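Q: what does this look like with uridine 5'-triphosphate bound?
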Amino acid sequence: MSKRVRTAVFPVAGLGTRFLPATKAMPKEMLTVVDRPLIQYAVDEAREAGIEHFVFVTGRNKGVIEDHFDRQFELETTLETRGKNQALEELRKDLPSAGRTSFTRQQEPLGLGHAVWCARDIVGDNPFALLLPDMLFKGEPGVLKQMMDAYEERGGNVIAVEEVPESEISSYGVVARGDGPDSGFPITGMVEKPKREEAPSNLIISGRYILQPELFSLLADQPRGAGGEIQLTDAMQTLMHNQRFTGVKYRGQSFDCGSKIGFLTANVVYALERDDIRPGFVRELRKLDLEDQL
Ligand code: UTP
């Protein structure tokens, strides 16, 4: 039987240059979709999948993430005095239990692979989940839970994948697919940002992983790859020589909230789904007479 996955790593040390100036002094992982920060959605998804320990790889300007996952006594007291019990309840519900968060620092943003490597001492010799919080997934059950089901069956490493139009392929890590159902099929190869004609499929690696700890020693010696960054895909490619990789073409919808279009779309979709927001939001949208502009 495969070792249980109890720990999740959240890399939040990137510069978020696509979202400047919003991310000049604030991490992009604190951008809100309706009223919840992106990092909270990722933590909720991990919790639903059974994760017990939450490891954040932070960088400069990221102290606010640590504060977000801490109690705010002054705020709580004020809410209590004002009888805002529901808001108080919600805040408490979002918090991981005491002692179940860890924070480590990536002093320089040398790439995703390097950020993951910074979590090695905390994760230790255990399998772990990796969630990129700027990728927001709407799935039932959540995408990491769907991947855990594949992990229980097949063990090894599991990667969430999704289809993109051919014209977009060269911006992503792309996998080669072996035979098997969408819920868990062998990955037979992967390549970071391939030329369109060299891409092995239209399935891209989309921001959720279950990985084995042997990856850390590969990351330690990983030279810089595409964009001068230490690339996670390059280390996974080497790990593939002696470990199994499974792809899960997840059921659900993704929003790349590291890009402005993805972020704005996510806000519209999530707002329209909220019973408390939808009526007022639709009314305001109608007033804008958007037909002319769409
Ligand atoms: P991205 O490449 O989307 O983030 O990395 P970025 O570099 O911050 O964004 P842009 O392209 O400049 O706008 C995906 C995730 O990996 C983290 C980011 O914080 C994000 O959650 N990351 C990336 C790190 O933690 N460290 C890095 O060196 C790079």
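The chain has a mean pLDDT of 93. The first helix runs from residue 38 to 48.
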